Amino acid sequence: MAFELPPLPYAYDALEPTIDQETMTLHHDKHHKAYTDKLNEFVEGDSALQGKSIEEIMGALSGKPAGLRNNGGGYWNHDFFWKSMSGEGKQPSGALKDAIEAKWGSVDDFKEQFNAAGVGQFGSGWVWLIVGQDGELAITSTPNQDNPLMDVVDVKGTPILGNDVWEHAYYISYRNVRPDYLKAWWNVVDWDVAGQRYEAAKG
After folding, report:
1. I need a surface site. Which of 86, 94, 150, 181 has the fewest CB within 10 A?
2. Residue 147 in contact with residue 76, Cβ under 8 Å?
3. CB-based burial of residue 144 (10 Å sphere; 0-12 exposed, 13-18 middle, 19+ buried)?
4. Which of 174, 150, 176 is nearest to 162 (CA)?
């Protein structure tokens, strides 16, 4: 069964002014769709991949073509990214907030470290908040469409939040000023979803 392009969980303009409607439309309908279509081409051409979940594919990329890594990652990352955001502008709470404060001292200090990792990711890629293999929260970044679920990355873990720092994610509104995009992104983070992911990862 082919992978399907997941619909956005909100309207294209729901995240304005942080993320503009044109960016969301191009990002979802063009970029995410292209990753989906190309992932399906790899799956159709390899019977060993057929019937596997995208998470199973991500966890067994060693020895597989780079195109599967790039397009499978692009498919999973973007679905995760859309679900990480909402237009409600809430703040972290509960166990995740407590864990962030225990690790970084405050939510603001955590955001500064996360943003710095995003700015420091050379070229295209992603910045992540994860529960690492040691069970602790950590900030990491990955190039291209890699993610911490992949068996081929240096820092593995369960993603809690992830921000896309490819230029197509922000260039229309922020041009080449990635730091401004990273700072503004917190206005649309869905902390309820992040908290649920954290509790599931710890549970």
Report:
1. 94
2. yes
3. middle
4. 150
C-beta of residue 158 within 8 angstroms of C-beta of residue 197: yes
Q: What's the pLDDT tens digit per position in 34-82?
A: 999 999 999 999 999 999 999 999 999 999 999 999 999 999 999 999 9
DSSP state of 126: E
So what's the pLDDT on residue 1? 65
Rounded to an integer, what distance in angstroms lies between the CA atom of residue 118 and that of residue 185?
Answer: 11
At 141-154, the pLDDT tens digits run: 999 999 999 999 99
| Residue 98 burial (10 A CB sphere; 0-12, 13-18, 19+) | exposed
Alpha-carbon distance of 15 to 85, in angstroms, equals: 8
All domains of the chain, ordered by start, with CATH? 21-83 (1.10.287.990), 94-202 (3.55.40.20)
